[in-house]
Amino acid sequence: MDGSIMNPEQIIGPDRVLLIEKTADKHALLAALARRLAERAGCDEPALLAAVLKREALGSTGIGDGVAIPHARLANVENPVGVLAILGRPVDFQAIDDKPVDVVVLLALPEGGAGTALEALSCLSRRLRQPKLRDDLRRAANSGAAYDILCVNQKS
């Protein structure tokens, strides 16, 4: 990035927000999100899913309060890209607080850019730690509203 503070809209585009009524489990959810990110951001779907599953095997990316930020570093990714999913039915993510997850951001991060990767994770976790923002996301009527809540109406 250019040295300025990273914002969610630099990572998640309006076409990469999903409201998912129900999903079978964590693996099915991650596969669906990897597919969307591959379709909309040009990521390699099999490589992304494999890398995310490998990262999850090291420890859950469920950060608590119903939020998870699964992520992986890929060689062909130049800048952080992500997809946001709001789940109608929470999924067990083995989160640090043992609560199921219903707000998920899947990230593909540049393989060599440790600083950029940390900045992207920090940017999103800071936003998603806000209780009102999480509640508003869960009540979003559609994907456009969810995008606006996360990316447009920033007050942090």
UniProtKB/TrEMBL annotation:
Which SUPFAM superfamilies does the entry link to? Phoshotransferase/anion transport protein
Give GO MF terms, alphabetically. protein kinase activator activity
Q: Which Pfam families match?
A: PTS_EIIA_2
Residue ranges of every copy of the PTS EIIA type-2 domain listed in the record = 10-153
Q: Which CDD domains match?
A: PTS_IIA_fru (cd00211)
UniProt entry keywords in alphabetical sequence: Sugar transport, Transport
Which InterPro entries does the record cross-reference, listed alphabetically?
Answer: PTrfase/Anion_transptr, PTS_EIIA_type-2_dom, PTS_SugarTrans_NitroReg
What PANTHER family does the record tag this protein with? NITROGEN REGULATORY PROTEIN (PTHR47738:SF1), PTS SYSTEM FRUCTOSE-LIKE EIIA COMPONENT-RELATED (PTHR47738)
This chain belongs to which protein, by name? PTS sugar transporter subunit IIA
What is the taxonomic lineage of the source species? Bacteria, Pseudomonadati, Pseudomonadota, Alphaproteobacteria, Hyphomicrobiales
